[in-house]
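Subject: sequence -> structure tokens, single chain

Hey, anyone have a minute? Need the predicted structure for the following. Not urgent.
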Amino acid sequence: MPDGPPKRDLIVLGEPLLALIPAAGVPFRRSDVLHRFTVGAEVNVAVALARAGLTASILGRVGDDLAGEAIRDDLRREGVDIRGLVTDPQAFTGALLREVIPAGGSRVSYLRQGSAGSRIGRADLDEVLIAEHRMAHVTGVTSALSESARTAALGFLQRARSHGLRTCVGLNYRARLWTAEQAAPHLRALATASDILIGERAEAAMVFGATATDALLTRMAATGASTVIVTDGVEPVHALIDGHPVTIPVPPAAAIDVVGAGDAFTGALLAGIVSGLPVRAALDQAIWAGGRATTALGDWTGQPWGVGGRVIVPGAAGEVSR
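Reply:
Had a minute. Here:
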């Protein structure tokens, strides 16, 4: 007897947002044109899997409004399964305003307090849908949204593990959503339910109370995660893979918009792992994809495509494929 349909690759839990962003280098207050994007940490990761030729699904909420309709359309076009994306008629779709100023980085203003995405709870955790997948991913952003979202994020990982899914947690601390004191214990709780744990150096140090690389990796691995990764912008990526330390340099990229680079990194990493690449090889494509994502405006506009979970890395710069 057949075992049923093949498993889908990744399911994420998070809030999709509508982003309005002027052209790079144009201050928001002087912009005449705003570009609309669908964004959100977990959304970006799901798109990365779909672009890599794998299957990805999302659990979340949007409002019954134009923004929610646009988000649904964007995700459908990228190939993300939105069966678990609930339309909440009692709340609005979350949004953010952002500007990209070369000398000053990116500045974000959120419009998400009381949003549909912040109202997600355990009742939204479709157990049948979760069980259809091989891997689950959530970030600390979801936990920052509300008490019900915190409960849902941890419950999502627990249910995923009960169905045999491999779990990934990105710390993704957002200072505009909650304080470090509020966030740290909840992010540690998420980390203890992860098989793969990823954090940017400053946020990981905040959560685990260490700054030296070896100590930081050791404390992250003490959560039980078999793979722990510390990123640091253009500095080398450090990882502990089944107890073995790895350091990988980050090549330079012609960055236009750095927001979303970490999610592209995570997505390409998970795409490689779920497709059967060793973690070390998956890290190589993750680093390249993270850099590639910074070369265009928008969180996932610059994310690369691939086949079967293997991101297509082009030839040398300036080389024409023909």
